[in-house]
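FAQ: What does the model actually see?

It sees only this:
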Amino acid sequence: MAKKQKKTQAGGTPATVALTAAGTAFTVHSYDHDPAHPSYGQEAAEAMGVSPDRVFKTLVADVDGELTVAVVPVAGTLDLKALAGAVGGKRATMADPAAAERTTGYVRGGISPLGQRKRLRTVLDDSASAHPTICVSAGRRGLEVELSPADLAALTSATLAPIGRE
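And it is asked to produce this:
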């Protein structure tokens, strides 16, 4: 077991390294990413054979000038007004992709809520708590981590709020 953890840390992403360092139980799922697929999240759900309501995408939004992470099911969309309200803001817009990549240290389609270069305020859609485990990006396209929503919320200091729309 120690070899597996050591290997994970040596060849892992900042997200898997953070999970291992925290002693959090998680499972890594990898799949061959198809650059032509129209949706990173939907592709992940299909490739892993997991219901899209258990696969969550990580989006970066600008709430009143502050970058904020929103984690919502891939089957739906982010309600920007609800996100702003969840963090006590007035207005939210999607962040500039280059700013999101620069701030998190991840590329679009591979942004993880875990192990970000700069820790951002995080809001997890409250639908996550209906599942024993959910999947989020592990920090690169074609790599997901499965963990409990409670662990994800604890590790990211996330607020749980209804920010997703079907």
